[in-house]
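Chapter summary example.
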Amino acid sequence: MPAEGVGSDPRRRTTPARWRVLGHPDGMLIYQVRCIVENHGWTEPAVEDRHKIVLGRSGAYRRRLNGRVGLSDATSVILTRPGDEMAVAHPFGCGDSYTCLEIDPAALADRPDAEHWMDRSGWAGTSDAPLDLAHRLLVAEFRRGLDGFEMAERLHRFLARLLSYSPLGTGDVGGDVDRAVRRRPATLAAHRRLADRAREVLANSGFALGLDEVAREVGSSPHHLSRVFQRMTGSSLTAYRNRLRVRELLDTLAEPDGRPLGALAAEYGFADQAHLTRVVREQVGHPPARLRRLLTASDAA
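The structure predicted for these 301 residues follows.
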């Protein structure tokens, strides 16, 4: 049986959405959510009552976590603990989707890798391609159907991988940037705003805009934007754009309709099917056809 509170219906605590509970073994609850945007403004702040991991799948929104505003998208990972305060806004006119894992403190108490999480306030960062694929494969396995024993073991393994990946206490690449430009706080703030604005445009452009168009959207030159984005995020604009569209593509590959890869290449702004295949291989190490087989759930729900 799930631990008290963790097994309760999560729909009572969040904004309107379509839900799918995937499992709730041994004091843990995992579910998928696709938000339904009814109000583009900020929600009322909600105080978290459990340890929670939110893994982005598609779309973008703004979050205010313990007073700090940031952008969440398909690359985002958020870890919260009881007492953290969260509000969200959807100014981009689209819903987002994510996977959420809620964990009872008793399930974390004997984990040395969770000590930092237990003792600090909310953390927000990004996942790399292998971690994102591990998350999606985990969801696919849960949707196919597992018994409670295997659910629990798989969740603990995934949690170990995520906690070893997440630099809890250090945050994003921005920590190094903070130190590098500590004497110019106004410049740092301006650069953060520019990088976040570029992320917003890329996440909501449908991958149809060129670099010059993205730069115009954010009021910058292509050269300046490219330099600042690399400095603030540790990633080039091209690499970040590829991460976004591969993750959107993985969501589509998990659907049962089986659209041709050539059509998907055009939809997601790749030069052709060969280009799509090459970028996907570079990102996650598998061709799209294999990923479609791995990610497609065979259940009837």
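To summarize the output: The domain at 239-295 is CATH 1.10.10.60 (Arc Repressor Mutant, subunit A).
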